[in-house]
Amino acid sequence: MAAHFGRRLRKGAATTAVAAAAVAALSASQAPGVTGDDHGRQTAAGASAPVPDAAGDDATGNSPYYTDLPPLNSPKPSPSPTTGTPVVQGEAEAGIPATVLDAYKRAEAELRTSKPGCNLPWQLLAAIGKVESGQARGGQVSADGTTLSPILGPVLDGNGFALIKDTDHGEYDGNSRYDQAVGPMQFIPSTWAWAGRDGNGDGKKDPNNIYDAALAAGHYLCRGDRDLSREADLHAAILGYNDSQDYLNTVLSWMEYYRKGTYTVPDGSGGLPAHRSDDGTPHGGTSPKPSNPHTPGRQDPKGPTAPASPSPTNPGDGKDGGPSTEPPTTPGTPPATPPTATDTVDHLRDTGTTRLTAMAGHAFTGAIGARAETKAGAPVAKVRIRFTITGDTDTTFTGGESVATVATDAQGVAKAPALQAGEKTGDFKVTATVVGRSLKGVDYQATVTERAADALTATATGDTPPTCTPGGEFADRIQVKATYKGAVADQVAATATLVTSAADPAENTKGPYFKDADGKAVRTLTGLKTDAKGLLTLPKLYADDTTGTFLLRITTPGGGTLTVQLKVAADDTATTSPSPSPSPSASS
Fold this sequence. Notes:
Elements: H1 13-30, E1 95-97, H2 98-114, H3 122-139, H4 189-195, H5 210-221, H6 231-241, H7 245-259, E2 263-265, E3 347-350, E4 356-359, E5 369-373, E6 384-390, E7 396-397, E8 403-407, E9 413-415, E10 419-420, E11 426-434, E12 442-449, E13 455-458, E14 467-468, E15 479-484, E16 487-488, E17 493-499, E18 514-515, E19 521-522, E20 524-529, E21 535-537, E22 548-555, E23 561-568
Helix pairs in contact: 1-7, 2-3, 2-5, 3-7
């Protein structure tokens, strides 16, 4: 029931078969054409083969989860009252506690704005919340969404579950030896450290708060530019949360069920599932609502309990009611745990990453790589490497995250996702560390430079320079196109100056001019910027009473320069407009 990375203890093909059958039944009885009514998206009718999670991480550490399946009949809730206390109506399992449901819908709304291409349905969050914590133990949350008592997954000490040694010094799970999944969406501490979000605006990122946890889960599922309206991406996202085919099928079953209708129930009145993936009990149907729910491996509502210490149970050891076939071990001396791949890592080294530089708004071309090695220099495979961006920057990895975790390959190498520069210029740092260890990290320096153009061309054709009469205005506005290495240079800053001469870039004191907001003559414009097509159209130009040939020079970062010739001459055929009021800079 935890959202973290690792491997769960699973219960075989039976769970997959039952869950798959439930999905199929739901699809047949409730969803002709398997079309959901949420945003008009197509939904999956069943689970395909597991799709690897490209990020190399999962949210729960593959902790146990609830395997109860939804009823096969479609929920048919009556409309909830607009005032007063909600009343339980329709199928009991279709009811979701008010605060919990609000958190899911808020997270969907935020993701619709921040990552519109993800198409995250709140029903997916509700399905995960159901199997991870029974909707926060039936809605046992305060008004601000914080659980009334801690929700903790089993100790991840390698005995039946993943082995994840402490990464948060017990800050979130109260366990300084091993990690445990935390909160209603069951994030392990090492994942929450980078995936955590503030969903209720209180300035904190709390895995025990359903608003924070639901928003974090939404962003976690939407990593890597996923589109959850696509079956492959949807399955990859769910398997990334917990790498189990059984888990995938169970979540899909609940998501389909919730798409057919839900209703609000008061906080604290929801039922708690009874069957877990690690208890060997049947998982079809639902369980009665307990008056004082208890979740194995979690803290008691009356107060926190001390973290459990490793105590493996094996068949025939006398702990399951059967006779013991082995002599008792010495009390207080647990069996030695073999070292994991992570334990064998002595250091990280750079794989030859060069200096990283990119223009604002563009992708970095250089790749970041780190190699995990033993003390003897041998590569270590299947070790999770976390890449973290730090510094005053809005640069992110592909997908919009500032942290990415990648597993090393057979050569011990982990490659970070591509970096995408934001609009903030300057230096920042990417650091690679080994998840679950306190080894020295590897730093990679990177720089974002301002947007640039190395060439400017006038869009107007012809050899005749723009001309107007003294005291008049130029008929056409000057427009130029900016490019960088032949490509359109958009959002590039530019400066336009009426210069003294081709050799003297100083601002001219007479001749053509622009007008500022107050109508005063100005001969230098700053703060200009090209548009999405690389085009820059200057404001209208005016002329004072001075005749002659004048020069307008436009420059950009990156070396782009264009000098435009302007003429002011008496012409009986020219249309003149009244001369503007003289100003010191416009007088001759």
